[in-house]
């Protein structure tokens, strides 16, 4: 179970990843709140969250692939233990500060998120294009189901 505003970025990343069939990196933890415009908002306890995840990674062996995604708004409040700062400076652990969901999506999927064009589409090959494609497919499936359930199947194509 996931609980609290601090998990809303992770929850949305999970949903977008599933829709786009874009796997997320498993060694990167996420904290942050997201608003309806996709902007990442500050959360409480960010130092403890980073240090706690770092401790787990250290105990399991730092690979250089592990890290945390945090809100950019929290950066000015960071007061991390020297051990975490040194690991980050040497590339053994990473702290990624993001301001938008697209930034988080790119870090977690290692793919370009893609910016919306004037017509609401996204560049081919981007995560957002894959999400939009899947949502349109789901919309078409629901439209067919609705037509079948209403008995109006004359308009259905085989």
Structure, described:
This protein has 158 residues and is mainly alpha-helical. It has one domain: Ribosomal Protein S5, domain 2. It has 5 helices and 5 strands; from the N terminus they run H-E-E-E-H-E-H-E-H-H. Strands 1-4-5 form a 3-stranded parallel sheet, sandwiched between helices. The protein has a two-stranded antiparallel ribbon with strand order 2-3. Strand 4, helix 3 and strand 5 form a beta-alpha-beta unit. Helix 1 crosses helix 4. The mean pLDDT is 92.
Quaternary assembly:
single chain
| Overall pLDDT metric | 92
DSSP strand content: 5-15%
Query: Mind telling me the CATH class?
Result: Alpha Beta
- Global geometry: elongated
Physical arrangement of strands within the biggest beta sheet:
1-4-5
Short description:
This protein is mostly helical. The chain is built from 5 helices and 5 strands; from the N terminus they run H-E-E-E-H-E-H-E-H-H. It is 44% helix and 11% strand.
SSE layout and pairing:
Layout lengths: L7 H13 L7 E3 L2 E2 L5 E2 L4 H15 L6 E5 L10 H8 L4 E5 L2 H9 L17 H24 L8
Parallel strand pairs: 1-4, 4-5
Antiparallel strand pairs: 2-3
């Amino acid at each position: 179970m996931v609980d609290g505003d601090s998990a809303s970025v992770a929850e949305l990343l999970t949903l977008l990843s599933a829709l786009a069939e874009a796997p997320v990196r498993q060694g990167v933890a996420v904290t942050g709140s997201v608003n309806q415009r996709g902007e990442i908002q500050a959360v409480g306890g960010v130092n403890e969250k980073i240090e706690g995840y770092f401790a787990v990674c250290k105990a399991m062996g730092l690979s250089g692939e592990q890290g945390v995604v945090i809100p950019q708004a929290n950066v000015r409040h960071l007061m991390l233990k020297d051990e975490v700062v040194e690991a980050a400076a040497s590339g053994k652990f990473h702290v990624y500060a993001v301001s938008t969901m697209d930034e988080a999506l790119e870090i977690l999927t290692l793919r370009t998120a893609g910016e919306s064009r004037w017509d609401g589409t996204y560049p081919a090959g981007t995560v957002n294009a894959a999400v939009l494609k899947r949502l349109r497919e789901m919309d078409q499936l629901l439209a067919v189901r609705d037509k079948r359930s209403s008995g109006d199947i004359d308009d259905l194509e085989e």
